Predict the 3D structure of the following.
Amino acid sequence: MEPENTTPVTNEVQSTEANEMQGTEASESQTTETSEAQSAETSSALKVGDIVTGTISKHVHHLAFIALENGQEAYINVSELRDEAGNVNVVLGQSIEAKIKHLHSGIELTREYLIIKQAYDALEKAFNEKTVVEGTITKTNKGGFEVRLGSIAAFCPRSHFSLRPERSPQQQVGKVLEFTIEEFKRGKRGRIVVSRRAILEAIEAKKNERLAELFTVGDTIQGKVTQLSKFGVFVDVGEGIEGLIPMGELSHAHVNRASDVVKANDPVEVKVISIDASRGRLSLSIKQLTPDPWLSFVETNKVGDQLSGKVVRITDFGAFVQLAENIEGLLHISAISANSRLKHPSEKVSEGEEITVVIEEIVNHDRNDRRKIRLMTPEVAERRKPIDVKISVDDVITAPVKEVNDRGVTLAIASNLDGFIPVTETGTPKGTNLQDRFQSGKEVQAKVMMVDLRRAKVRLSIKALENHEEEMAYKQYQTEMRQDQSKMTSTFGDLLKNFL
């Protein structure tokens, strides 16, 4: 009996649940239809993009609810209700204008377009009136800087950012600076170009007016190193004014890099050496505040003096020798060896070596870059002494062999004069070993073919001795003939004079 009663009870329960579900679905369906109807009614009255006006009725968390003039309620994010200072300011009862952003779940409003429009309006006004605006540097690129003018993006070309090339543009990111608007265009293809040049030029002009008032040539002033460059050092001397120490005014010594003398942010004492207020230029010097070692050197040393020095640099054309503190002279490659032609100075001298030199020339000048000291080794100095030797072309001389090589034979004519016999003028068969034929110290007779005492050069020939007597006899004959002709002409003239 119990099993028969169980089934009807279950069916009754299931029937009751089904009826409840159907009721729920019917209720939900009715609610949905009502919502859709309301949305349809709202959509028929308002659409996205419409500008509406209403008053703030309540403020809940991050939303503000707006009672529209048509009796409907809308909402807006309070982040869009900011005052001019950028602070959220929700005032109940305040009337606002906004644009419909969405209609999906109620009426969502936005005032973003108004904020952007107001920002553009303000920038356009600044552009038309040529007034200054503030902008934040947000990014750098190859052409210049990206600048944020409130909520609006702008661009500043590199050439309009500063009066001098900006060496560390990345360090400018995040700075808030003043600009003028040079180009202004609205719209999707809008473009805003800003500049700092006019502002900086105005500042520079004011500084320039102050230059002549603040400084006088000859003043000694204090400053701080701001920047190093390949042509000098910039120094902040106060009141926003910078002066330049040219490379040649850093030290009496030769300076390759400004960093060898000073570093950025170093305090320095400088002398004012020139002022050009019209161009805003203030030239300074460290060097002129210290004694000039050049003057002391040239007072105590003269051409021909022999002294010791240290080789400090070697180049292809010679070696620089330090003769005293901050004083260097050039030992040219041609003045290193008297007996051989060098391909490079390092064949005879090395950096750091102490050597003996002779002063060949001193070029004195007020400017450092025109002061010069030319040096030579003692052996070259001996060779370059004035030659007091009587020797002429066609003379026949006898002198000892000094040096033999593949090019020929060198004879020592005097202590500071050599003569050279080219291999083709030695009178020996081709392939002869000259070292065997001409031993060092052996006396050799040769004929003089060329003489240049200024350059201490004499060219000789043994081969020319073979016809020397005949050539001399012929030259003697020519000389006598010229003398006879001269006498005959003179006699005939005298006779003609007497006859007339």
Residues 386-500 form a domain with the OB fold (Dihydrolipoamide Acetyltransferase, E2P) fold (CATH 2.40.50.140). Residues 1-44 have pLDDT under 50 and may be disordered. The CA atoms of residues 300 and 344 lie 32 Å apart.
